[in-house]
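User: I'm new to structure prediction. If I give you an amino acid sequence, what do you actually give back? Let's try with this one:
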Amino acid sequence: MKAFTLAAAFAALASQASAHYIFNSFDGGPAYQYIRQNTNNNSPVTDLTSDDLRCNVGGETGGNTQTVSVAAGSTHTFTADVAVYHQGPVSFYMSKASSSAAAYDGSGDWFKIKDIGPTFPTSCAANWTADLQQTFSFTIPKSVPNGDYLVRIQQLAIHNPYPAGIPQFYIECAQVTVTGGGNGVPTPTVKIPGAFQSTDPGYTVNIYSDFCNYTVPGPAVWTS
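Assistant: Good question. You get back a string of structure tokens that encode the predicted 3D arrangement of the chain. For your 224 residues, that looks like this:
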């Protein structure tokens, strides 16, 4: 009985460790058709100084990933393999490639185009809009200049409060070519890594104690 109990416990821990999620579909298409395929299965990134924060482990170049044409002002989706179940915000970023999206490593400037954070219908009672959702939509800004871009989705899981726990970044990048754009100048811009600090209130917050407001980490959303 004791051996069975230990075996069951180890199996449960193994299942919990592997039970994450990955955003592997763009606009409902086949997995990794337009999304760079990572090499760490569905594990998160936790190192705030790592280049893997850009497009996940193994996502530094396009490899066999295709680039899809998208119109400025159009709405698109990222879909995960399973529903997102860790509490935390979802954000969308874009970065213009210096040449082709496939060859771009994401080392340039990034700007944020959308945040999905919690709401507080009653005082200190958060409603996580992203919780248990599987598909997330965003809109390409109408005034963004034409060209090749990486579009980055980020879900920051803060269910294990810092510093006892480490927030987890679930990230993926799609390769797109924007058409019909404008002459907007995206601001503010940031570098990744560098956009997130271990002192950010949205990173260090304890969602289980006096959680009455929340600021999503990273720059402000570009109001194009």
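You can read the tokens as a compact description of the fold. Here is one thing that stands out. The chain is about 10% helix and 30% strand.
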